[in-house]
Amino acid sequence: MAVSKDHYYRLSSEVPQERIEAATSLLSELAEVNSKEDWQYALNRLVKGLITTKQSARFGFSMALVEVIRELIYRSEPEYEDITVESYLELVLKTTTLKAAMKGKEERSVLFGRLFGFQVLLNSQVLLDSKLVTDETTIFKFIGALIELSTLKSWLRETAIYTVCQFIKLLENESSEISPKVKSRVFLEILQCTNDQGFNLSTEGIAVYLSIPVSERSTLAEQIQNPKSNWKNGDPFAKGNLPTLAKALKDVEVINPEDDEDDNAENKKQNGKNKQQKGSWSPRIPFVWDLILANFNESSARVSEATDDTSKSQSKKRKKHSQSPSKKSKNEEDDNKISLKEFWKVVIDESLFSEKASHERKYWGFEIFIKFFTSGDLESIQYLFSPNLLRCLINQSAKQNRMLNKISIKALESIVEEAKVHPFKAPIAVAKLTDEGVGGCWNFDLVTKSRTVDNLLSVFGKQTEEQTNTHQEIVLIELRDILESKFKTALEEQNEDASMTDDTTETFKKSNDSILKWCLDKLLLLIRANKNMFNEQSGSSVKFVEDIIKMLIKYGFFAPKSSNRVSLNIRNICQDRLNSILADIINLRRIDKSTWSSYVIKYISKLETSSKYVSLTDFDEELTALKEETLKTLNSISELSKLTESASKRDQLYCFELMFSLVLVQLYMGDDETVQVINEIKVCYEETFVGKEDDSDPVDSSVVLTEIILSFVSRKSTLLKKFANTVWEFFLCGKDEVTGKSRLNESSLTLLYDVLYARENKQGQDNLFEGEGEFEVDSEDNEDEDENKDGEEKNSDSDNGTEDEDSPSESSDSEDEEESKEDLLTELDKETNIKLAKALGIPAAPSGEVKFEDLDSSEDDEYESDSMDDEQMMAMDDQLSKIFKERQSAISAMPNGNKRKVEVMEAREHMIFFKNRILDLLEIFNKIQPNSQLNLTAIKPLVTLINFTLDKNLGVKAHKLLKTRISKTKVTLEDFELYYTTEEEKKEYKDSLLQLIGEMQKTVSSTKSSNQAHTLACSQACITISKNLINLDESYLESVLDIYTSSLKEWALNPKSKLQASLFFDFINWINAKR
Length: 1075
Fold this sequence. Notes:
The protein is mainly α. The chain contains 48 helices and two strands. A two-stranded antiparallel sheet has the order 1-2. About 35% of the residues are buried. The model is unreliable at about 255-275, about 315-325, about 495-505, about 770-815 and about 855-865 (pLDDT under 50).
């Protein structure tokens, strides 16, 4: 059986898997035939294949050649004795001999073929076998040929020296069988060849020296014969080599002044030849930087080990000279080495990132930074953020048209990605990027148009609670400390006007307010982005949040006596950020089961009694008494919660504690409505837990609390929304333990439905928030009112008729507004004339008219303008300017058309916003009590809202609530009998449901639907009510059928009926499914 030659063709395939299969098949057939002729042919054919111009062929042939060489050299048969390492080297050199007639491309292929041939020896590891290599002669020949190859072409030098460094690492490997003496002689030969070729002070020379073991570098360097310019102590990183090292790593020819000036011309010529440039610049940084990074990591590891040993010895109270001599020598060696801090400053920051450095060198600098940051240890990365690097990083990443914008963005992204893998690097990066002292800036993300700092602060944002650990909490604490330290530093450096008193400075924005605001924003982001780590069991994470809250309280409500005071602007921001934090953690209970808002109140009370702080919140006697009374109530709630065994009671107490404490926090922030709210909450609390001692009328606590909740959800505050939802969910939506009924009743829900019925315009807003009685006489309307008319008003009006009704109203509104404005202007002119006359000393009537006759008749009048001096003229000028400014301000404050339009738009947006919040509350109630009969009371308001809302999204949301939740309500007999005990009450309720079906069908038949969703909603609503009614009493089925029959007759006989056929189809389908 002959070996197939097709395998050699397949070895040059572009597909890696096909090359592997070809090599495997070739070796299998060679081993099966086992003919020297075939083996020799394979060897020669594979070596010749290395000089092909096809890159993929070199990979395939060299891969197969490794296995062939390993197989042939290890054979012990006499016929294979002539195949040795030396013979293989000679074959490679002979096959890759350069010829004068070769072209550039052919020459390149031949030289790369020789390099691949040498690499085959390394991959086969035959040079490391002491049985095959009895002395170092063969290795010396290999080294000499390899280094000579590096001198032939500049573009081949780095690759060839890389192969040399690989060989050195293989010799150091434990698997190597070469004796230590032979290794030392091999290392010396490598250094000697490097010296002879003039590579000592070059990037390749640095790579060779760094590959040699540290302990042997100095000794071997001293044994070099005819030494040329070299490193001090035989180590590139020895003290004193830093300037030379910087030049060498820039690929600049290094001229050592200590060189012998009498070197012969031939040596200088040879050096010049070997130090020629390496060709065109490559974006890939030289491999020597991997060795440099490894060198620093090893040095840092030795220092850390020595530090750990020292700390252990100190903890055990050892003697001063107890450290071993070997460790002392290691420390001394490290002291004589160039540190990363020194290296980075000179070689990177002042060289690659200098102002005069080219874009190519800066590109290398960014690549080196990425490599060192991603692979360096924690102790060393702090030195990477040097001034010139940060300056270049900020400038290049700020604009997309910069030459190095992409690589700078890559550097920023690598910082974030590495921080996710090794979170302890995040605090170091944040500290340096925002430190102006090293070239960073506090608003780094703003100037670089990135989110680098924000992403570093959010490093744990996507992790779950199960993935959290102590290390992550330590990182968050370090990030918090950095931001708090920056805040305090900016506050201390803040420039204050000495002429201003402490009271006046609060009203001014100070010099560093932007920095302080940034710090507060980032502290909020730190909590928001990592709040998945905060839970009741994690004590350290709770401490982390507490410290931030304490800081906000100190600067938001108090002024430290021993340090600078923040501006009023920062005080307000601190209060806002405190609200935002409470909004994010309001649903989380503390370890002691108390609320976060009560913790805020306790800490505020603590600082109020402290001598180190001055309270900036002034309460009058009434508010102080209210505060003290509320604090007593909070203490009683806390004590009662400890004594209560019932879980539901504890939840109720928790809700009241949340309400009292949170409203009290808002009182400290100056909210005017909190006084009334606290009193209302107190009434509900006493009604629920304390009981009333007098015989006064009982208070419906659910109605009062619902009103409070509505007042909160009407505001655009995330904190108040979450607070309202919490109280609504855990208290009002629950059931009373005694009666088993829901704490909510129809009166409470009616308050919600009134909002849904209200018009989405200014009048609707005023009716809700200021009382309906005030607007009964005032019939002013706006553009949005007529779009939201009741069904009776719209049942037969066309669009044109509505427009005709709008026009007179709008016209009269405009006329009234103009007349009112003219009256105001007349009154304003009158007041202005009186002020001007008084300022000028001119007599004027109460109507504002100037009495010129009195002015002319008084010859001895004090008013003589000619006799006024300059100071009097200036004073009068200031007074007149003030009068005219007041007049202009009054005119600006007058109502006008644009202002009215803005108010109308804001009122509409607010009503839509408010209704969205109401739908959220109804959805929460349905989730907790899906089968409550109170769910059916929401049907009519929701259907009305769907038809008359001006906002499409609001209508979709209401229809979704009706379709997916309310329509699935199934009132049970037990729940029904719980609310309605007598037969009369039961019949009245069932009749009301039947009547509701008829009313809805009558309304939909006379009212034009504004959208398709309204028609579907009416059909779903009728079926939902019918289903529950028949479930309670099947005898009502006939009555329901009568209603549908009546509606069907009207639809068939009355062409103007607006009923849709789908109403009857849906009902028939439901009846069919029920049968």
